[in-house]
Specification:
By secondary structure, the protein is an alpha/beta fold. Among the domains are: 62 residues, no CATH class; 121 residues, Nucleic acid-binding proteins (OB fold (Dihydrolipoamide Acetyltransferase, E2P)), CATH 2.40.50; 171 residues, Rossmann fold; 158 residues, 3-Layer(aba) Sandwich (Rossmann fold). Strand 20, helix 19 and strand 21 form a beta-alpha-beta unit. Helix 11 packs parallel to helix 12. Bound molecules: adenosine-5'-diphosphate and magnesium ion. Magnesium ion binds next to helix 12. Adenosine-5'-diphosphate binds next to helix 12.
Length: 745
């Protein structure tokens, strides 16, 4: 911008500047930004003018509600805008009993109507932050000390540092709304300076190109982009903020949805799908029919519905891309097995990838027993059939065994492959991979999904695209699913198998209460049942975690659980030892399994009826719910004990929610509310880090709208040929490979 006069909006092509142009301008083009400020801004991740303009205030102070010092009254909380006129640090002394009194910083402020003493305790750095000459907003309670009013430990927003080039203080005092920007301790910046940079950028950028035509904006009740950026950075009333934020949030969500919908579209366009055999021409029962008929239980309506929609996808020309959501214990595994069997029916292969070895091993055991006795056509044998073959491949599989599996995969005699990341290695090549299931997807990235799917094409790319089913470990809220898994169709299993009793969950807060957990463990073991004890999480390496698990197992065996057979399971154990521990626990040779969170997902031991989670406050809701789901899987009454003395509000909210409900969908909403979207989205989803203005919880309507607009747009103009400025903008926010895939002509 410095290169062109402020009025020149540059080659916009349309009307107004594009975000791309702002993204190409370093912040140093701004007059206020010298090399020191440039470095400071870089600390905040701000390198370009676009970064600056998308560095949104985290809150605002309503300068229209300032209270003059002369009018302050004791007992109220007030916002005061004033200059620092004196700073002192009375020496820390010793109180009674020679206890050191807290260090104090006292600051005297003046707003032209009077003076006020502001006191900070144990915040020595305030002396540095607030030298004489600083102009700041002070928000805090007004008390009195020895007859004079004073403000105690207020929130402070520095508007002008003592050595800032003076901003006319009158401007600041004229009752506007002050944006408060996220700052970093390392960056030597104030909100006021960032605000000044942002205002200069806005002035000089002038009108911004709006990729949303005004008719759409009207329909969606959104303000135009120029207004949105202006009002987010310099609202003149508090009421302007929310419409501005909603517009910027919509843009973020829309870009994300557009990328996801485009990706879905491109995959379909390029697809070489397989039309699987869903019903047999000869009217004979299919493998799925045989499998379902032999299950020791009847499928729930929800399981049947899920199998039906999956079968429909599988029978179609386009490869399936489907997300299967269901609460812990809702029976997703059987649905996954049915999907793989459809592939096997037509002579293809199925693959199931799980996030941990324990889980992969368990899946293999379970799937093998579910498929016991099923056979597939084999023209090489006399009977014309051979047993259906399931193989397990993990990083621990021995080399000889591995070689056998590889050749079975290549010649098609391994029908179903179950494993961990090991499935992704180059040596794994299928004769014809027909269906891929990814379990507990939150552990896997989009790339891993794509890598496994690519195994269908094979090295020469001549093969076809397998159908893909992704399963979540625990439910995630619908709108979060739209954002994270927006390139997948969704099926929800919203029904639990009959006969499940609610798991009695108690949060135990004191050593006295904790005894209840151990006595329940002893009672249940006496009744022939088993218990899990999840060890406290320990900071540091897996090794540190493991040694603490070992110590805890030894301690329990000597103390609370003496006389019981206590076993151990942690991530550092050798595969064979892990397997042995699991087998002993399954068979009942062990009564209690003391474990780290390696048991978190999927471990299925029907006799387990008690789950004790130590330091439960250290776990997230999804993890706790997943752990709890390990017990009470066979219809017996079951208990979950959450041990924690931490009653800080956030921890308490989590633990009480667990006590209150066993519904994973409800817990998912609580989780989103408590943690915000960041942790749910994680770093997996490219572009989710671009959600700066959007809030998944309160912007659910925007997510839905953004998705609808994206779907319509791609249906109408799949190449986005008529939306050059949108494409241009999307390219700023997605990585190069993705852009290459989405926009190749
Ligand atoms: P999740 O959805 O958590 O992966 P699983 O597939 O592991 O659940 O199933 C949990 C348990 O419920 C398993 O022991 C499974 O055999 C059993 N199960 C699955 N479907 C049914 C059903 N329809 N009726 C009774 N038990 C079922
Ligand atoms: Mg499962």
């Amino acid at each position: 911008m410095s290169a062109t006069p402020p009025s020149d909006r540059g080659p916009t092509g349309g009307s107004g500047r594009r975000l791309r142009q702002l993204a190409e301008l370093p912040v140093s083009v701004l007059n206020g930004v010298g090399s020191a400020a440039e470095r400071d801004l870089a600390e905040l991740g701000i390198d370009t003018v676009l970064d600056l303009l998308t560095h949104y205030p985290r809150r605002y102070i309503d300068g229209t509600r300032l209270v003059p010092i002369a009018e302050l009254a004791e007992g109220e909380k007030a916002t005061v805008l004033a200059d620092v006129v004196r700073v002192s640090r009375p020496p820390a002394g010793y109180g009674r009993g020679r206890r050191r009194t807290p260090s104090r910083v006292e600051v005297e402020i003046d707003d032209g109507t009077g003076r006020l003493k502001v006191v900070f305790f144990n915040q020595a750095w305030r002396a540095k932050q607030l030298p004489v000459g600083t102009l700041a907003l002070f928000y805090g309670p007004i008390g009195s000390y020895r007859g004079a009013l004073q403000m105690g430990s207020p929130t402070v927003e520095v508007l002008r540092g003592s050595d800032d080039e003076a901003e006319p203080a009158d401007g600041a005092r004229s009752g506007r709304v002050f944006p408060v920007y996220p700052l970093s301790d390392r960056a030597n910046l104030t909100s006021a300076r960032i605000s000044r940079f942002a205002r200069e950028a806005l002035d000089r950028a002038g009108e911004l190109d709006d990729p949303l035509p005004s008719s759409w904006r009207q329909r969606l009740a959104l303000v135009d982009r120029t207004t949105a950026f202006d009002h987010i950075h310099r609202p003149t009333s508090m009421g302007q903020r929310e419409p501005a934020r909603r517009r910027l949030a919509f843009d973020e969500l829309f870009r994300l949805q557009l990328a996801l919908v485009l990706r879905q579209h491109r995959l379909a366009e390029d697809a070489q799908g397989i039309r699987h055999v869903v019903t047999r021409a000869d009217g004979e029962p299919t493998l799925v029919d045989l499998f379902v008929g032999r299950l020791p239980f009847t499928l729930t309506g929800a399981q049947l519905a899920a199998i039906a929609s999956i079968s429909e996808d599988l029978g179609g020309a386009l490869p399936m891309h489907r997300l299967l959501q269901g609460d812990v214990g809702s029976g997703k595994t059987v649905v996954a097995v049915a999907a793989m069997l459809v592939a096997v029916e037509g002579g293809h292969q199925g693959a199931l990838m799980a996030p941990t070895e324990v889980l992969a091993e368990q899946h293999a055991t379970e799937v093998r027993s579910l498929l016991e006795g099923l056979s597939v056509p084999d023209h090489g044998t006399l009977e014309g059939r051979r047993p259906l073959r399931v193989a397990l491949l993990t990083s621990k599989t021995a080399a000889a065994e591995r070689a056998i599996i590889y050749s079975g995969l290549a010649d098609g005699t391994v029908d179903i492959l179950i494993g961990t990341h090991a499935l992704l290695t180059d040596q794994v090549g299928f004769r014809s991979l027909g269906a891929v299931v990814i379990d507990e997807q939150h552990r896997f990235g989009v790339e891993q999904r794509a890598a496994l799917r690519a195994k269908g094409r094979g090295e020469d790319g001549a093969g076809r695209d397998p159908d893909l089913l992704v399963m979540t470990a625990t439910p995630i809220p619908r709108t979060a699913a739209m954002v994270v898994f927006g390139d997948l169709d969704m099926t929800v299993i919203d029904e639990m198998p009959p006969g499940r009793l609610p798991i009695t969950t108690s949060w135990l807060r004191s050593p006295l209460e904790v005894e209840e957990a151990w006595s329940r463990v002893r009672l249940e073991v006496a009744a022939g049942h088993r218990a899990f004890v999840v060890c406290p999480l320990v900071e540091g390496s897996d090794r540190v975690q493991a040694s603490s698990a070992i110590a805890e197992a030894e301690r329990l065996a000597e103390a609370e659980l003496s006389g019981l057979a206590v076993g151990l399971l942690h991530g550092q154990m050798r595969a064979a030892d892990k397997e042995a521990a699991m087998a002993d626990f399954r068979s009942g040779r062990l009564d209690v399994l003391v474990a780290t969170t390696v048991i978190e997902v999927g471990v299925d031991v029907p006799e387990a009826t008690v789950m004790v989670i130590e330091d439960a406050d250290r776990f997230g809701i999804a993890q706790l719910h997943q752990l709890r789901g390990r017990v009470g899987r066979a219809g017996d009454p079951a208990w979950c004990f959450l041990l924690s003395e931490n009653d800080a509000p956030e921890a308490a909210a989590r633990l009480s929610a667990m006590e209150r409900t066993g519904d994973g969908f409800e817990l998912a909403d609580v989780d989103l509310e408590l943690r915000g979207e960041g942790t749910i989205l994680g770093a997996r989803q490219k572009g989710s880090s671009d959600l700066k203005a959007a809030k998944l919880l309160s912007d659910q309507d925007l997510v839905v709208k953004a998705r609808a607009v994206a779907v319509d747009l791609v249906a109408e103009d799949p190449g986005l040929a008529g939306h050059g400025s949108l494409v241009d903008e999307l390219r700023i926010f997605i990585d190069e490979n993705e852009a290459e895939f989405l926009f190749k002509s």
